[in-house]
Design goal:
- With 324 residues, the chain is mostly helical.
- Helices cover 74% and strands 2% of the residues.
- The protein has 12 helices and 2 strands; from the N terminus they run αββααααααααααα.
Length: 324
């Protein structure tokens, strides 16, 4: 094999592409050997601390009646912890500051649910108190470390430079496309949280509850896939389908929210429900607006740089051979 240093513009900087990055289905990611000690320490702290919160919350779930507000809030804590793991590992390996920021925000949400869950419960035992103290201790640690990591990724942009080069405009539209993909996950996270709170407030039966969760999960997975294909393939068809289906989730939430207002008598529970639903609607509206901004950057060579596509794309988009 001929040496690549004469043709590689990054060779004078002693940057070796093959050792620092790997090609994946989601684009270029950093190799494990390229992560520094501080990043490994961050992932270790996040994994261990969230595992502790996860274990204590699971233990509490087995002791709580399913119809209580405390049980619903405990389920929400578990649900948000799973997304925190996704944000932490994907954010570090793909060097995406937005995902680390959403990790920080999700940690704050877990803290809020934990504090509210402590006050709405009727029984105050040592396990419940210990869970709150542990969560309030490790939560700020994740927030501080995550904010530092996110700011570092935002300023350095090392993987971004290796992906799209030094053109500032290409870096901006790449960040915008990355934000779109992260917003898809965060939108689904907030939507499920709002749905669980609405289900508890309305008090629908178990069969209806399972039906809503199953159908909602299938719809959300399809919707996220369409949204990702829109960015991945720069497809107008996928964008049209994505925007058309985007009215389903907020419509259901608004309808259920109006119904829940009649059933929900607890002032604190009603406030949490309204804040959660309003936050979801705000993020969902921002996601739709960002979709239009991402569409304006179609055909400017971004997907060729991120995924290495060589085939031309028509105005309707084409699904490239991403597995070859």
């Amino acid at each position: 094999m001929e040496p690549q240093s004469a043709e590689d513009p990054l060779a004078p900087l002693n940057i070796t592409r093959t050792s620092s990055t790997r090609n994946s289905l989601l684009g270029k990611r950093r190799a494990c050997s390229h992560l520094d000690r501080y990043e490994w320490l961050f992932l270790g702290i996040v994994s261990l601390t969230l595992a502790g919160v996860l274990a204590i919350t699971l233990y509490r779930l087995f002791l709580l009646p399913t119809a209580t507000s405390e049980f619903t809030l405990a389920v929400l804590v578990l649900f948000n912890i799973l997304f925190c793991y996704i944000y932490a590992f994907h954010g570090v390996f793909y060097e995406q500051p937005n995902e680390i920021y959403f990790l920080v925000l999700s940690t704050v949400i877990i803290l809020v649910y934990s504090v509210v869950g402590y006050h709405v419960g009727e029984i105050q035992d040592s396990v419940k108190t210990g869970k709150l103290m542990y969560t309030c201790f490790v939560g700020p640690i994740i927030v501080i470390l995550g904010f530092q990591i996110g700011c570092h990724y935002r300023v350095s942009g090392n993987l971004l430079f290796r992906t799209v080069g030094g053109d500032p405009y290409m870096q901006i539209i790449c960040r915008r496309a990355q934000l779109q993909c992260v917003l898809l996950l965060f939108d689904a996270q907030l939507m499920y949280s709002a749905i669980l709170l609405v289900i508890h407030a309305v008090g629908i039966n178990l069969v209806q509850e399972l039906l809503v969760l199953i159908l909602g999960s299938i719809f959300t997975l399809i919707w996220i896939l369409i949204g990702y294909l829109m960015v991945r393939c720069e497809s107008l068809i996928a964008m049209a389908a994505f925007l058309t289906l985007s009215v389903v989730q907020p419509s259901y939430i608004i309808w259920r929210l109006s119904t829940a207002g009649v059933h929900q008598q607890d002032l604190l529970g009603k406030t949490i429900l309204q804040v959660s639903a309003s936050f979801f609607l705000f993020v969902h509206a921002y996601l739709v607006g960002n979709t239009v901004r991402v569409y304006q950057n179609f055909g400017k060579g971004l997907k060729e740089k991120i995924f290495g596509d060589t085939r031309s794309t028509s105005q309707y988009g084409a699904i490239p051979d991403i597995l070859t």
